[in-house]
């Protein structure tokens, strides 16, 4: 697995296939393994790049310098090193925040933007955001990361037939460095694009799950604010749509890419 020096860290990434570039960005507390069901499907036709974001997986764990802006700069520099001039950027949850920021700060790099169960303003989610920030930070401080990993994995994949993916996600989450997870979470919840969302004119697909912790209406609201965005809803899916409904997600993304 190659690593590249960017923005004062060692970034771990993998790439597969040839063609137009699809760059996949994972969620908080996870790794590029979020995309295990997408890599074999899309690498037949595309150059697929997956990466462990700052403080996650096999990428460096800095003592400070966390947040969406740092992660965005990491990705921009990775694209430069790999000589990728344009990519379709697919971001899930926290990865969606990084994808949004990349499209805002460096629009020239974006071919298409795909946002999965995420939003442009984690700092302006109302009661849901406030409760998430207070409950999760309290849980971390009082019970620690291992019980939190178990709870998050169960909430994402509670069905009996989801035990395998639940256990895999829990293991990934357990391997996080406590401070890296805490700092990534707190800085994420302080991040937002605000009115800059209106300036993202690139063709955008927003994918929402019908049972995500933020309702479909939350995604509908910000899609309306974007000049060139459409919304697709995956049924019988919770937050981790790319994992719990990979066939449905892959089909939606494939259809979007085929109709450029």
UniProtKB/TrEMBL annotation:
InterPro entries: AB_hydrolase_1, AB_hydrolase_fold, AB_hydrolase_sf. Residues 21-131 form the AB hydrolase-1 domain. It comes from the Bacteria. Gene3D superfamilies: alpha/beta hydrolase (3.40.50.1820). SUPFAM superfamilies: alpha/beta-Hydrolases. One of its GO terms (cellular component) is membrane. This is 3-oxoadipate enol-lactonase. It comes from Tenacibaculum lutimaris.
